[in-house]
Design goal:
12 helices; 3 domains; single chain; binds magnesium ion; five-stranded mixed β-sheet; binds adenosine-5'-diphosphate; Beta-Lactamase; 55% helix
Length: 456
């Protein structure tokens, strides 16, 4: 290494040496010697200075090197540096730990040997591939100490020298074991939440069912007592008919038969029998209908998509809520006679029952309380609006009504789950939405929107 100063010094020395040469040839010049010694001193001082500078630079370089090494070795991600032919130049501690091989063992070795057989070739190709493209998030397996594969996701980028020429590639990789575990944990938690939510759906259903059972019992009582009454009448008629027929069979006289006919009121009896039987049949049919509705309401959660008539579902939902209440609310239903839908009938039914029940609760203390249900289609969706002219919702509670366990009703009356469950059924299962708002005229309105055709 020379500097401009070095050159000047050399020229000076050349001149001096010429003069010293003269001395050797007998031309004595003492001042030349003195000058030589002085110059030597200066040169020595320069050398010492250069030496100090050099050492300082060396120390700086070493510091930088140590810093980089400490960073590289404390990385938890894997680092591999290779040349353009795919020969390993450097690896970090994370890789040593994962593979059980040391950096010095690996230097100069082909990149592919770090990976399991399945991926070796793919990684060897990186050296070629990298000239045109970077490789991101490629899942491969490192060969572990016992030969087993350790999954990692790697990125591979080209490395250039100071002239901008490709000088190799750099691979960084993140072990997937941890990610997988985190993902697994997440899934388990999610599954648990889903189960909990399904239990909630079920328990809310049971709660609503409990409320309905009282109404149903009351409702069943009517047709059943009707059928009972009719059957007792028929039983009495049977005795009278048997007596009359007995007289005919033993060939009683015409007079006796006529007497019996009028005593036993046989003509009235014959007129009555038809309506009695019709009435009983009607009662039995009504019981059948109630049981059918009840079954639809209480089918378990595993619902199947089907084609159904939304108008019928709205009517039954309203009917059930009305029947279950001691004071029957006024419900005005303004919907098309039939509205065919493909989706989950049971869920839609459950959502509507919840909305109508809430509306009925809201108008409970209102003299002119009234619930209005409207439905209509727009493009490929159908909207059902359940509105009431009851209490309305306090503005600061508008967003909270869909929260689980949010209720303003007394213990034993409200669970605070109806809207929460309805919301999740509407959005998750039915691919629709459920919105709530206050009406300008007072009271609240809840709007359920679902697609006409659910895509499975
Ligand atoms: N139509 C409505 N009018 C006024 N407030 C309502 C209406 N629907 C729901 N809310 C409010 O939302 C709350 C939560 O409703 P919900 O989730 O069905 O639970 P719950 O009916 O058991 O209280 C109710 O307690 C009530 O305060
Ligand atoms: Mg409710």
């Amino acid at each position: 290494m020379t500097s401009p100063g070095d050159k000047a010094a050399n020229d000076d020395i050349g001149g001096l040496m010429a003069r010293v040469g003269n001395i050797e040839h007998g031309m004595v010049d003492e001042s030349a010697w003195i000058e030589v010694i002085q110059r030597m001193d200066t040169i020595y001082a320069d050398i010492v200075r250069y030496q100090v500078e050099l050492e300082e630079k060396n120390a700086g370089l070493e510091d930088a090197h140590r810093f980089i090494q400490s960073v590289i070795s404390s990385m938890t991600d894997v680092l591999i540096v290779a040349d353009t032919r795919g020969r390993i130049q450097q690896v970090n501690r994370a890789l040593e730990e994962l593979t059980g091989r040391t950096a010095s063992d690996l230097t100069g070795v082909a990149l592919g040997t770090l990976f399991t057989e399945e991926y070796a070739e793919q990684v060897e190709d990186f050296a070629e591939h990298i000239r045109t493209d970077v490789i991101t998030d490629c899942e491969v397996e490192l060969r572990g100490p016992d030969g087993e594969g350790a999954p990692i996701a790697i990125n591979c980028t080209p490395r250039f020298d100071h002239d901008g020429r490709l000088s190799g590639l750099v691979i960084t990789g993140r072990p997937l074991g941890e990610l997988r575990r985190a993902y697994q944990d997440l899934r388990e938690t999610h599954d648990q939440l889903k189960t909990a939510q399904q239990q909630l759906v079920q328990s809310e259903k049971m709660a609503s069912l409990g409320q309905l059972v009282a109404g149903v019992a009351h409702e069943l009582n009517n047709p059943i007592s009707f059928v009972f009454g009719n059957m007792h009448a028929l039983k009495r008629y049977e005795k009278r008919l048997a007596e009359y027929l007995g007289a005919i069979h033993r060939s009683a006289s015409d007079k006796e038969r006529e007497q019996l006919r009028s005593d036993l009121k046989i003509d009235r009896l014959l007129q009555d029998i038809g309506p009695l039987i019709d009435g009983s049949l009607e009662g039995a049919e009504r019981v059948g209908e109630i049981v059918e509705d009840l079954r639809r309401f209480s089918t378990p959660n595993q619902q199947q998509c089907s084609r159904f008539d939304l108008s019928r579902v709205i009517n039954t939902a309203a009917e059930w809520v009305i029947k279950a209440r001691r004071e029957r609310p006024e419900v005005v239903i303004d919907i098309p006679p039939s509205l065919e839908l493909y989706g989950y009938e049971g869920y839609v039914h459950q959502i509507l029952v919840n909305l109508i029940q809430n509306a009925a609760d809201a108008i409970e203390d209102y003299k002119d309380g009234r619930i209005a249900i409207r439905a209509g289609t727009q493009n490929s969706t159908v909207t059902v609006e359940v509105s009431d002219n009851g209490t309305g919702i306090a503005p600061d509670q508008l967003l909270r009504v869909f929260d689980p366990f949010f209720t303003t009703k007394p213990v034993g009356k409200g669970t605070g789950l109806g809207l929460y469950i309805s919301y999740s059924l509407a959005t998750d299962q039915c691919q629709g939405k459920l919105e709530g708002a206050n009406r300008d005229e007072g009271g609240a309105v809840f709007t359920l929107t679902v697609p006409l055709e659910l895509s499975e």
